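Late entry, evening session. Most of the bench is empty. Finally got around to the prediction I had been postponing all week. Sequence below, unchanged from the version circulated by S.P.
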Amino acid sequence: MYPAIHVDDGIIKGKDLEKIENILKKLKKKFEMVVYAKKVLEKFNITDCKAMKPPLVPEGKTNGENQENEHIEFSYREAIGSLLYLLCQTRPDLGFTVNYESCFTENPKKKDYKNVERTLRYLQGSKNYALFYKKKESEEDDSIHLKVYCDADYAQNLRDRKSTSAYIVLYNGAPISWCSKKQSVTATSSTEAEYISAAQSTK
């Protein structure tokens, strides 16, 4: 067993999952251990809500510019910050969603609040998700597998027609690096958008 602690974060490495779980149980008896996703839900009073999928409602055919800027008592920027921390640590499934929602932190409209609320409700149903790293991808194969997948939509942003790139790097089937980000230039074809995404994934 190899436990590693940095400030208030920790990780345990080992071959026996049952032993790892036993160590966690003993640590919980002596220390306050909090699952960050559950802490976020408590912070925004979403602990008793019904879980929802998917975490984001697509824009559809309108870009929402004509919506009234209704004041809603909700800390939008703070919620995005909490979701960004989760995204960067252990939740690649939130990549596109949080990247999209963070574009509206300056002037969120009603639809943006609803999207963040939906993301938090998605989190309610997936708060126990975790990354699990294995020494090898399968029992029959002892070799190390490093795989990279990348993709891009084409001109799906209705405000500026820019594309969004995404990639994920897998080590023996588990993600070690991921990103979803709007491209800095406007691609003039789906091929160009895919090429930009592939270039970003190799940096």
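Two things to note before I forget:
Strands lie at 2-6, 9-13, 146-152, 164-171, 174-182.
The mean pLDDT is 87.
Will write this up properly tomorrow.
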